[in-house]
Amino acid sequence: MSNQKKTLAWDDLSLSDKEGQNVNDYLSFLSEGKTERESWRIIERYAAAVGFNLLSEARTFASGEKIRLGVRDKAGILAIAGKRPLNEGFRLIAAHIDAPRLDLKPCPLYEEEGLAFFKTHYYGGIKKYQWTALPLALHGVVILENGKKVDVVIGEDEKDPIFTINDLLPHLAKDQYDKKLREAIPGEGLNLLLGHNPAENKGEERVKGAILDILKEKYGMNEEDFASAELEIVPAGKARWAGLDKSFIAGYGQDDRICSFAAWKAIEAIEAPEWTTVVLFADKEEIGSSSNTGMKAYYLENFIGELIALQTGSYNGLLVRRSLANSKALSADVAAAYDPNFAEVMDKRNAAFLGRGIVVCKYTGARGKVESNDANPEFIAEVRRIFNENKISWQIAELGKVDQGGGGTIAQYMAVYGMEVLDCGVGLLSMHAPWEVSSVADFIMLMRGYRAFLLSK
To answer: Which residue among 85, 104, 434, 438 is least packed, with the fewest CB closer than 10 Å?
Structure first.
């Protein structure tokens, strides 16, 4: 039931052994999948194991058949054919698997007074001061000059070194204390500390040379290879149960990998649904859904076109557009949970609360609902009915006080096709921080709710 009745998800929760294992699996997913490439790689591995075949190898798309499509190794789509023809519409859950982080600049490596650093450029909305003086890891890929793709992960194994970004000691921080919080750590100050042991070879930048020697030995890299690299700085360490009662999940990237994992679990065991079920994992949401892996690209439309062709024997643009327009979707993204420590930014009557289940948001956007989807009440009523009939705890909320700020999701980019779309996720504490916190009860309800939506008549 909704938060207007102030029911707690815990009161409706009888945790099965399988759902308890799902929490542990989610912790592993968060720990292993710290980039969009890693996250999709894990999901694709899961999907292949339960019969989702590559689109390129498919010859039919009949009821119960499962198909997957990877999008440049950083996004992807899964689909199960329903009993109804695809042009009548499908059920879609769309989440994103990118997360706020620091990226290496194209020419990142430099030496200053015997210390070697990487220069970074932050990705998405972060509080820059949160990224200093904590253990960090380096994840990503490098395409070498010979075309070989090399995976890089440093800082996760206990035998690995970790990285850090220096902060100013409080003894000398008089001027820093006087700055606004957003200015205390400038973007150009987020430089990753690498080393200070100089190479034996002669030269003015011996520490930088030593770092290049290590990269050459370990990955076959030279300095120019940074130009064709995608290297991300993320918090080091594994996601964990949190709280003395183990009622929370703490980890990096829960925005939006908690919804991504729940969407995967929702579709995992579906066999022959009434409607074709589709789960999409997008990239680039945190920077506006741009590029050929973001939701503004046409890979969903192209994917549906391929499925229509498999079902009918030829491509038909009109059927593709009918399919999209007749569909119903959940934009699977997180919401800001009410935090008593920062109550002043919330409208308590319209806030999301931890432990009260799934969070439904009619609209997101900023201030005057700018760049929001603003879902239709008829569709909200339908989702509400699905959740109530399946005993799914849910609540309806918005992001915060009207003039306080705001944020967007990928809902608007699905709505352009004419489909019904509603934002639907869970609340988080410390959203966009290196470590985010979610509720175990809400996560369980999210998996149940997504599955109920995909199976709805």
So the answer is: 85
φ, ψ of residue 319 in degrees (nearest 5): -65, -35
Spatial separation of the C-alpha atoms in residues 362 and 345, rounded to whole Å: 19
What three-state secondary structure class fits 120?
A: strand
Predicted pLDDT of residue 433: 97
Residues 289 and 404 in one domain: yes
**CATH number for the domain including 149?**
2.30.250.10
User: Would you place residue 3 in the very low, low, confident or very high pLDDT band (cuts 50, 70, 90)?
Assistant: very low
Q: How remote is the C-alpha of 327 from its chain's centroid?
A: 23
φ/ψ bin of 72: left (φ > 0), alpha (ψ from -120 to 50), beta (otherwise): left
| 0.90 exceeded by pTM | yes
Q: Domain check: are 81 and 182 in the same one?
A: no
Closest C-alpha to 25, from 447, 449, 453: 447
For residue 70, how many other CB atoms are within 10 A of its CB?
19
- Alpha carbons 370 and 365: distance in angstroms, whole number: 5
Give the residue carrying structure tokens 């759902």. 19
Domain boundary among 235, 264, 290: 235
* pLDDT(152) > 60: yes
Neighbours of 340 (CB within 10 A): 6
Q: Residue 395 sits in which domain range?
A: 3-99+252-454
Q: What tens digit of pLDDT does each residue of 282-307 get?
A: 999 999 999 999 999 999 999 999 99
Q: How far, in Å, CA of 139 to CA of 253, rounded?
A: 14
Q: Report the candidate in 255, 116, 264, 274 with the shortest Cα–Cα distance to residue 194.
A: 116
Res 4: pLDDT: 54
Domain count, the chain: 2
Give the CATH number of the domain where residue 22 resides.
3.40.630.10
Query: Mean pLDDT, the chain, as a whole number?
Result: 94
CB 441 within 8 A of CB 355: yes
Within 146-239, strands assigned E span: 149-154, 164-165, 192-195, 229-235
Backbone torsions φ then ψ of 146, nearest 5 degrees:
-85, 5
Task: Determine the Cα–Cα distance for residues 363 and 366; give it in Å rounded to an integer.
Answer: 10
Instruction: Answer whether residue 191 shows pLDDT above 80.
Output: yes
Taking the C-alpha atoms of residue 282 and residue 257, their distance in angstroms, rounded to an integer, is: 11
Q: Are residues 93 and 126 in the same domain?
A: no
pLDDT in tens, 306-364: 999 999 999 999 999 999 999 999 999 999 999 999 999 999 999 999 999 999 999 99
